Amino acid sequence: MTFNEIKELVLVISACISMIAVAYGIYLSLGQYQVKLKEEERLALSSRADVDIRLIKSFTELIDLAMGRRQHVLSEKAVEKVFELGLISKDDFNDDFTKTQKGSLKLSEYAVIRLPVGKSGQEAAIAAIATLANTYPVLKDAAIQGLEGIQSYNKVAEKYLQAINERCIQPPPNNSFNRSAS
To answer: Which end of the chain is more exposed for a tag (fewer CB within 10 A), N or C?
Structure first.
C-alpha cells in the first residue's frame, strides 16, 4: 500500500465514522423530539380541560341570565332589620347543622336581593346558549338541560331547544330578534 492509498482509506474511514456519529446524534434527537411532542400533547390536553372548565362556568352564568337571574346581593341593612324584628336570631346559626341551614334559608329569604334580567336579555341569552351548544359539543347536554327547564315559561327557549336537537341553529321566526322592518 502506498501512502496515497492509506491516506484515502483513512479519509473514507473518518468520513464513515463521522456519518455514523451524525446518524446516532439524529437518532438521539428524534427520541428527545418524541418525548417533547408527548409533553406538548399532554399540556395541550390539560390546557383544553382548563378552557372547557372556564367555558362551562361562563355558560352556566349565561343560563342564569336566560332564566332571568343575575347575581344575588346580601343587604346588610336588611340583615340588621331581620335581626331587629326577631325573624332570625343568633341561635339560628350554631353548631347544629339543621338549625344553621334553617337560619341560612331564613336569611336568604328575607335579606338577599335578586337582581332581575329583562325579557330581551333573557331571549338573547337563550339564543347565545343555543349557538354555543352547536359550536361547542361539550356544551350541548348542558344547553339542552338548561333550555328544557326554561321552556316552561319562555317559548323562545322551546324553539331554540328544538333547533339544537335538529342541529340547525337559526333564529326561530316571529321572535323578538327577527323582526322585519315594515
So the answer is: C
Spatial separation of the C-alpha atoms in residues 5 and 161, rounded to whole Å = 86
Reported as type and span, the H/E element at residue 74 is strand 69-74
Query: Where on the phi/psi map is residue 126: left (φ > 0), alpha (ψ -120 to 50), or beta?
Result: alpha
* 127 contacts: CB under 8 Å, gap ≥ 6: 156, 160, 171, 177
> Using an 8 Å Cβ cutoff, are 67 and 150 in contact?
yes
Question: For residue 152, how far is the Cα from the chain centroid?
Answer: 26
CB 169 within 8 A of CB 134: yes
Distance (Å, rounded) from C-alpha 50 to C-alpha 63?
A: 20
pLDDT tens digits along 11-52:
999 999 999 999 999 999 999 999 999 999 999 888 888 888
Residue from 75, 54, 167, 62 nearest 123 by CA: 62
pTM above 0.90, yes or no: no
Cβ-contact 92, 111 below 8 angstroms: no
Q: Are 93 and 153 contacting, i.e. CB atoms less than 8 angstroms apart?
A: no
Q: What is the rounded CA–CA span in Å between residue 155 and residue 176? A: 11
